[in-house]
Design brief:
Length: about 70
């Protein structure tokens, strides 16, 4: 179970670079700008998406360690 969840996390973590998510307001602003500005906005959004995944991974690791200690 843990191995499958870990592999899913790795898949999601490494696929962040290939996604280009934008909110509606950011998309409207970027459509009027140049390509470099659009890439900068996409990179910033991807950068901000990493931290929730890291927090969740830390929580799962802490829970895993706690459950492992209680079994012993």
């Amino acid at each position: 179970m843990f191995k499958k969840a870990f592999l899913l996390f790795l898949l999601m973590f490494f696929s962040v670079n290939s996604t280009s998510g934008q909110c509606a307001m950011c998309k409207a602003v970027v459509e009027n700008g140049d390509v470099d500005m659009a890439e900068g906005v996409n990179n910033g959004i991807s950068y901000l998406m990493i931290f929730p995944y890291l927090l969740i991974a830390g929580l799962f690791y802490t829970l895993y360690r706690y459950r492992k200690q209680t079994k012993n």
